From TrEMBL:
Highest taxon listed in the record's lineage: Bacteria
NCBIfam families membership: L21
GO cellular component: cytoplasm; ribonucleoprotein complex; ribosome
Protein name as annotated: Large ribosomal subunit protein bL21
Assigned keywords, A-Z: Ribonucleoprotein, Ribosomal protein, RNA-binding, rRNA-binding
The keyword RNA-binding is annotated on this UniProt entry: yes
Known function: This protein binds to 23S rRNA in the presence of protein L20.
Family membership noted in the UniProt record: Belongs to the bacterial ribosomal protein bL21 family.
Pfam families: Ribosomal_L21p
C-alpha cells in the first residue's frame, strides 16, 4: 500500500514505515502530525485518484528530527564586465516517519 501526498509544494510517494525529508513543518520532535493533502492511494489493484484530493484520506506521521540540508552554492558572473557574485543557501527540513495511511 502506498500513497502520493503533497506537502511543502512538493509531491512524495510514501509507504508505511519509511522516513523522508520534507520542507520544514512547525511541529515538535516525536509529535504526531496529519497530512491531509492526499492525491492518490493505491492498495494492490484498488487505486483511488483524487480530483484533486482523495476524500477522507490522510497520512499519519511522526516527526523524527529537524535539520538543515547540504549547502547549495550559487555563482553568478557576467563575462568581460568584472561582475562576480557568490552566494550560498542551506534549506531547512523536517524528517518524518510514516506511521499509517488512512483511506
Amino acid at each position: 500500500m502506498y500513497a502520493v501526498v503533497k506537502t511543502g509544494g512538493k509531491q512524495y510517494k510514501v509507504v508505511v514505515g519509511e522516513k523522508l525529508k520534507v520542507e520544514q513543518i512547525t511541529a515538535d520532535v516525536d509529535s504526531q502530525i496529519v497530512l491531509n493533502e492526499v492525491l492518490m492511494v493505491a492498495d494492490g489493484d484498488a487505486v483511488a485518484i483524487g480530483a484533486p484530493l482523495v476524500a477522507g484520506a490522510s497520512i499519519k506521521a511522526t516527526v523524527v528530527s529537524h535539520g538543515r540540508g547540504e549547502k547549495v552554492r550559487i555563482f553568478k558572473m557576467r563575462r568581460r564586465k568584472h561582475y562576480q557574485k557568490r552566494q550560498g543557501h542551506r534549506q531547512n527540513y523536517t524528517e518524518i516517519r510514516i506511521d499509517e495511511i488512512v483511506k
